[in-house]
Structure formats: C-alpha cells, structure tokens
Design a protein that fits this description.
Elements: E1 4-11, E2 15-22, H1 24-27, E3 36-39, E4 49-59, E5 62-71, E6 77-86, H2 97-100, E7 104-106, E8 115-125, H3 126-132, E9 140-152, H4 163-170, E10 177-181, E11 184-188, H5 190-196, H6 198-205, E12 216-218, H7 224-236, H8 241-244, H9 251-267, H10 271-283, H11 290-300, H12 305-313, H13 316-322, H14 326-334, H15 336-346
Parallel strand pairs: 10-12
Antiparallel strand pairs: 1-2, 2-9, 3-4, 4-5, 5-8, 6-9, 7-8, 10-11
Length: 353
C-alpha cells in the first residue's frame, strides 16, 4: 500500500514540486505510528542526500505528512531553504480558509534515519481530510515543494589577490619584522600584516606599537605550526597547503589543527579565516570529534558549529556511539549544563517511523 507519487509542475537539480497522491480509503484504518514512506527522486542528491515523503494515516485522530531531506554522505551537507505542503480540496479548489486554519505546520520535519538536513511537516484532523480532500476514488493529494542547495563543504573561495604572495616570494629580503614562536623565527612584512589584521596594525603601527627597531617580537600561547598557517593565510588569502592536507587525515587531527587556527584567527581579528576554520570543523563532525567540538563551540560562541554538533547528536545512532565514550562521561562530570542542552535537543518531540 505504498503512496502513489507523481511529479509535476517543475523539476530541476535544486528544487522539486510534486503531487503526493495518497490512498486514504485503504490506509485510514492504520493506527499508531505506522508510516508510509516514499522516495522522492532528486538527481542532484545521488550519493549525497535522500528526499522522502512520509505519511502517517492515523495518529491521535490526525494525519501527518512530512517531506524530509536526510544526509547520506557525512562529508557533504545541504541547506533546505524552502519546504512547503498544501492540501487542495477534492475538486482541486482551495479548502475553505477557516478549515485551512486547523492545519498545524512545523518547519522541523519528522526525523527519519540518518542526519536530517531539513524539510517540513503538516498535521490535520482526519475528519477535515475526509470531508474536504478525499475524492470519489478514496484518494487525496498533497502538493509538496522542496528546495535543496549544497552547503557543506562550502563552495571554493574566490581566487585571492596575489600581492601578498608576490611580496613573500619576490621580496623576502625586504621583511622588516620577525616573530619568535616556540623557538622558531618567522620573518614577515609589517605592511602585509597590518593590511590583513587590525591587531597587527595596532601592534606594529599604532600608538602602542613596539619600536620598529625591535628585531624580534615574541608570540606567547601559540603553537609554531599554527602561527605558520596563520601567516601563510595572511599572505595568500587561503588555507595553506600544509593545513589543507590535514583534510585527508583523521577527524581528530583535523579538529585539533583547525581549533588552534580558529583561536589564532580570533586573536588577531582575521574574521574570514575564522569562518573558514568553522566551516571545516562543521564539515567533519564525527563520533570522535563531536563532543570536543561542542565544548569548543560553546566556549568560542561558534554560531554554526554548535547547532551542527547538536544536530549530529540528535541522530539516535550517533548518540548511542558517543554516549559510551570516556569523553561523554567527562562531559557528565565537567559540563552538566551543556549535557542538559544536548539531552533536551535529542528529546525534542517527534514521531517514530
């Protein structure tokens, strides 16, 4: 008794409008949380996401319809900028306005297996559907619209300007400041650093600037590899090759590298570098990194990373794996407030499939 699905109106790689034709006359005796699920073909989602239409024929004398996008590739995320479901009347004309007001809409889709990216849900009384929507053949139709766009990993950044690269390659002998970090010395050009970072500008040219005659500036509380990566970014405007290479290694090593780089970027006012680091951390959230990333996001007020971690933990299979780790038990002891937030996020009301 699968739902009948016909696609109409429009169809593109990024969005889809479709009619979900439901056989109410056969399914109206089903009760509880029994769900009928139908795959919605989405060419651009191959290997990256899955779109499904879900129908609960009877649940507390209401029917529920949900269109949901779930991620099938953990390395790629998508946004769902638009999702909507309408119920036309049995004649094809709109249902009376006062009746439509009884429909409950929720921007949070009923979760399905896998990482939920987005979608929408409506719930309506069964008697309303039977009176106004079910036709003589015992069917009714839901008009569904869903739009999906890729957001993780982020799209490539525009080609950076080459002036900083040219200076670093062509004029290394014109470097006029050096930095000492963990015993390593890094030569640089004051003008480049000041142009990139307001903090360096104040330190090197402001009223509180150190003497230009000073040959070496000591940098405390930073790893030498992190300073090297930050310096490379300031000259080239992109992630350095050495750091980008960590994208190919394990999630834990990547997390540590980019957390350090995020802190350095925050310290020196490099907002774009901060955003790049947060994007990478979001794209590689996993069982081994989610809790430390969550704590980091809470401490640093990372507006993208924190909800990404909570969304990851809201998937039952992920939570079960994380809950048996020593890191989870450490959070129980050290961050009870954050743990409560995780549990509340996980316990958000939802229907079972």
């Amino acid at each position: 008794m699968a739902a009948e699905l016909t696609c109409s109106v429009s169809d593109s790689l990024e969005s889809k409008c479709f009619n979900l034709r439901l056989q109410h006359s056969v399914t109206n005796n089903l009760h509880g949380n029994h769900c009928i699920e139908t795959d919605v073909p989405f060419p651009s989602g191959a290997g990256a996401f899955r779109c499904t239409a879900n129908y609960w024929p009877m649940n507390c004398n209401r029917i529920t319809i949900s269109v949901v996008v779930t991620r099938t590739n953990r390395q790629i995320r998508h946004n769902v900028p638009a999702a909507h479901i309408d119920l036309p009347g049995k004649t094809g004309l709109p249902v009376p306005h006062d009746i439509m007001a009884s429909i409950t809409r929720d921007a949070m889709p009923v979760p399905a297996a896998g990482d939920v990216e987005g979608g929408t849900t409506i719930s309506v009384r069964c008697d309303v559907v039977e009176r106004y929507c079910v036709d003589v053949d015992g069917h009714f139709t839901a008009l569904c619209t869903i739009a999906v766009s890729r957001s993780w990993p982020p799209p490539p950044l525009p080609a950076p300007p080459t002036l900083g690269r040219d200076i670093s390659v062509v004029a290394p002998d014109l470097a006029d400041v050096s930095f000492r970090v963990e015993g390593e010395t890094f030569a640089a050009h004051r003008l480049v650093l000041a142009a990139r970072s307001p903090v360096f500008k104040a330190a090197l040219y402001g009223e509180m600037a150190e003497s230009k005659a000073s040959s070496v500036v000591a940098i405390e509380d930073m790893r030498a590899p992190t300073f090297r990566s930050m310096l490379d970014y300031m000259y080239h405007g992109s992630l350095p090759v050495a750091v980008a290479a960590t994208l190919e290694i394990d999630d834990a090593a990547l997390k540590e590298e980019f957390q350090h780089l995020y802190v350095a970027a925050d310290r020196y006012g490099l907002d774009t570098l901060k955003e790049m680091c947060e994007e990478v951390l979001c794209a590689r959230v996993s069982v081994s990194t989610v809790l430390s990333n969550l704590v980091f996001a809470e401490e640093r007020t990372c507006t993208k990373l924190k909800p990404r971690c909570l969304d990851f933990l809201a998937v039952g299979e992920n939570f079960k794996e994380v809950a048996v780790t020593s890191e989870y038990f450490d959070m129980v002891m050290e961050s009870p407030g954050l743990l409560a937030e995780v549990q509340n996020w996980f316990k958000r009301p939802r229907l079972s499939s």
